[in-house]
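[#protein-structures] MJ: dropping Histidine ammonia-lyase here for a structure pass
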Amino acid sequence: MTINTVYITPNGIKIEDVVKVAREGYKVALSKESSEAINKARELVDRYVKEERVVYGLTTGFGKFSDVAINKDETGLLQRNLIISHACGVGKPLPEETVRALMLLRVNALSRGYSGIRLSTVNVLIEMLNKGVHPYIPEQGSLGASGDLAPLSHMVLTMLGEGEAYYEGELLSSKEAMEKAGISTIELTSKEGLALINGTQVMTAIGALGVYDAVNLMKAADICAALTMEALEGIVDAYDHKVHEVRGHKGQINTAKNVLNLLEGSQRVTRQGEKRVQDAYALRCTPQIHGASKDAIEYVKSKIEIEINAVTDNPIIFPEQDEVISGGNFHGQPMALVMDFMAIAVSEIANISERRLERLVNPALSNGLPAFLSEKGGLNSGFMIVQYSAASLVSENKVLSHPASVDSIPSSANQEDHVSMGTIGARKASKIIEHAQNVLGMEMMGACQGIDLREKAQLGKGTELAYKSLRAEVAMLKEDRVMYKDINKCVDIIKKAKIINDIEDAIGNLTL
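AK: finished. structure tokens for Histidine ammonia-lyase:
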């Protein structure tokens, strides 16, 4: 097999494959079995059109127009009109990584052999991925049923030579971008336009990248909590495995284990009764709070793993049974609910992180650290406004955590009378993850500052690695300086997850 290629096979793909294509520039290739499945479904579509059977989306209009028959000679025009009329997205363009992810997921769904698209059309989409032609896709406009119609239509515009696309970092007309990349544009034929846009690939792409980041975020949260335990001389008894095993939740048990492993060998943490009887909830209940979010994210991940390999078309072609069935697999409800769940779960991680940061900067709560982590408070503000910024992000997350999936607005003259709003939910969850990464970066920076302000003592096996990683990028704050640059470096450490890999190499996996 070629290095740096994700192969589309009947066995499906994994979330890690989505990340490889979206962020690392992996190429995409179809297996022989997938190509054969695509061709088999297409043969059935061609036969049905030739026989002039009345089948939704093949020989009828769409949505409320499903009762309008279309002449077989006009089925190609029907598909083109579908795309150009549905490309009604607004707002900022989706990031390149999201566009690549959704293109991959659409290829994967089409390759299952239930869509009735031509192999040559799928290959154009693959060629665009492999040569770096990324359609300009506005982020807003999807109801999440019938699938992500508006954004996916913008993807198809580029295949037709319409609309706009990015190529080699430049926004061009799609026609010019395709010509420069050496890719031929296409003319759609029966069923193809509908096959390309009737699915949940936009919300699922955002969700797949989001849940991948959320898993790393949870590991980073445990690292940050352990560093704060070091800075605040936290009590480790509350992390004893016996406490968590009698409750039984997996995420809680694993969080306690992770933190204790990170703190192994530390001379800074304390035992109950040594300096205090117990810590506040932000330290003592970290396993319960992190653990609940971890369990939620595991559930979300399991649903996204299903959806990235799902057939979400309408109608669905069943070549073996010689049947075409109009159904509702395009409905985004399975993704809508889990996107809202992930948003809430990650919001809580930012929430407790900010509370730990507050304990670091507040002299009434920090167990002896100077106010706002500054040795010359008054002349210097220290970390005062770092906590402000974290609080602002946490507050915004609370607004964004309002579920999108509980809303529905009827569309297409009430033919489509319940929609998921799943893409709105996915976009919100993605923004919350970004905010949480920032808050954790601020906590990590504050914790390391607190550690430096204590008397020197041995750090834990894992926390020492984390401390050194941060200090390699950000120096201790001795006098006030421009802080946003330091924050950005800390957030970058969280996002890149190198710190996680280094720690796992040293002390073993941090488990969810």
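MJ: nice. The first helix runs from residue 15 to 24.
AK: one more thing. The two ends are 32 Å apart (CA to CA).
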